[in-house]
Amino acid sequence: MAADMEMFYGLCCFGVIVAVVLVLMWFGFDPPRILGNPDDTELVVPIPEKQMVRVENPFFLELGSRPASVPGGVSIRPSCLEPSVLTCFWGCEVGALQEALLAHQHGATLRSARLFQDALRLRCSYCQTFHVGSEDREELHTQIPADRGVRDFGPPPRGRYPLVAVLTFGDSEDGGSYNIVASVTVVHVPDDKHNIPARILFEYLLTSQGNVHKLMSIFMAADGSEASEPPDPQPGSRPGGQMEGGGGRVDEAVGDCVVCRGAPVNRVLLPCRHACVCDGCMLHFQHCPVCRAFVLESFALTRPGAAAR
Ligand SMILES: [Zn+2]
Ligand SMILES: [Zn+2]
């Protein structure tokens, strides 16, 4: 009797084991994903592709060579493809700039570059205007007059940007063939309360359709050996330069894919903006091979002159 029961339980256990094996064979045995390196396996969900934007930017602005300070002023070197107007808004309220950018994007009220500037003029400490010819490349010096008594903009965090420099077209507001109607550059200028060196903080391009592109550098290897970040990734763009991926800047040489070494780099990973892999290797990565940042999106990198996709 006891032997029969033992045999019955034995058969039951065997049946359960066979059933488990059959179930595993049917659905396939997959080790838990968390144990493996995510880069070793093919992506289950493809990384979304961002639409590329290509525009010709007629405006360029960089800081001049002279030392900069709020009481002593700052030198700026604009270079533009068309006759342009440079307006320097000293002590521009942070909220005023953000509201004007939003209004340009979402409303018809501030569509023209002139209205954009009027919105800033009312909420800055001092405003100075220069005319810039298409051949002009010399440095301009802008400064708050001493009788205004502005020596600094207070300790951080601050409610005002030291300087917002806006470039627009001189004669025709729409700029003829250009899609870009204004470039807005936010500049830090040192003073006694916040004494870090002068530099460009942000740069935006405004389009005639009411879009605002924030310019950001794309990091890539210049010599094709090792992808590395430039020591000072200062945003900016040459006049006539190509801007891609919704506001990137591409003007360095492009090297080989850091993974396979067999194909040229033609993918930019977002949000880290490293251009380091080819299309083929892109499929196998969920993390950037350079900085290990999680890849949320990517866009194709095409050189000027390459066939349009
Ligand atoms: Zn590759
Ligand atoms: Zn990266």
From TrEMBL:
Record-annotated membrane-spanning stretches: 7-29
Family annotation (Gene3D superfamilies): Zinc/RING finger domain, C3HC4 (zinc finger)
Keyword match Transmembrane: yes
GO terms, biological process: negative regulation of cell growth
Protein name in the entry: RING-type domain-containing protein
Keywords recorded for this protein, A-Z: Membrane, Metal-binding, Transmembrane, Transmembrane helix, Zinc, Zinc-finger
CDD domains listed in its UniProt record: mRING-HC-C3HC5_CGRF1 (cd16787)
One Gene Ontology term of the molecular function aspect: zinc ion binding
Domain spans labelled RING-type: 257-292
InterPro entries: CGRF1 (IPR042496), Znf_RING (IPR001841), Znf_RING/FYVE/PHD (IPR013083)
Biased composition (Gly residues): 238-247
Region Disordered: start-end pairs: 224-247
